[in-house]
TrEMBL record:
Keywords: DNA-binding, Transcription, Transcription regulation. GO terms for molecular function: DNA binding. This is TetR/AcrR family transcriptional regulator. Residues 15-75 form the HTH tetR-type domain. Residues 38-57 bind DNA. Gene3D superfamilies: Tetracycline Repressor, domain 2 (1.10.357.10). It holds the Pfam family TetR_N. The keyword DNA-binding applies.
Length: 196
């Protein structure tokens, strides 16, 4: 799901053009891939000129970075809000967060994790996108870690990373299989991990 594509675009000149570029690029990058989406396709979808894109972002790579930053911010806010709304204790939240992911996987615009996709498409020796992805992942891990400290005080770090692997694996499996029920299997694994 492209969360940027769900934002309301505010009225007004240059800011509106920048937002339209972000919306268009997010949708196209998530749907077709970054390398398969040229600047011409983005500006056509956004209804702007190339010069507007270059003034706003400097380059296609600048646009990619801006899209990832925005997608990450919106996704994290959505995820944290949904996890916080789960009733029960920390253990319950850590298991039921896979129900949250399943709802995401069921969305028509679910195209996997933009960060995993971007890293998969780019030069593995180029750390620019990896650094953005790691910042995103670090914030998500902080939320999991906060709950893990309550659920397994003796080994919160181990629990955090075990669940993070289940989350990443479920996202990739849901993208590959187009089967949202992979979240159910990850949920079952999380429940078993938490029974340790």
């Amino acid at each position: 799901m492209s969360l940027v594509a769900e934002m309301n675009v505010s009225e007004g000149g240059r800011g509106q053009a920048r937002e339209r570029l972000l919306l268009a690029a997010s949708d196209l990058f998530c749907r077709h891939g970054i390398n398969a989406t040229g600047v011409d396709a983005v500006v056509t979808a956004a209804g702007t000129a190339k010069t507007t894109l270059y003034k706003a972002f400097g380059s296609k790579e600048g646009l990619v970075e801006a899209v990832l930053e925005r997608e990450g911010e919106l996704w994290r806010q959505w995820f944290v809000d949904e996890v916080d709304a789960i009733p029960g204790d920390a253990s319950n939240k850590l298991v039921d967060l896979f129900d949250v992911l399943k709802r995401w996987f069921c969305e028509e615009n679910f195209f996997g994790c933009p960060f995993i996709n971007a890293i998969g498409e780019h030069d593995k020796n180029d750390d620019r996108l990896r650094d953005i992805a790691l910042r995103h992942k670090g914030i998500v891990l902080d939320k999991i870690r906060e709950l893990a400290r309550q659920a397994r005080p003796a080994d919160p770090e181990g629990l955090t990373h075990e669940l993070a692997l289940l989350i990443d694996g479920a996202i990739v499996a849901a993208l590959l299989t187009r089967d949202p029920s992979v979240a159910d299997h990850a949920r079952n694994a999380a429940a078993r991990i938490l029974m340790k």
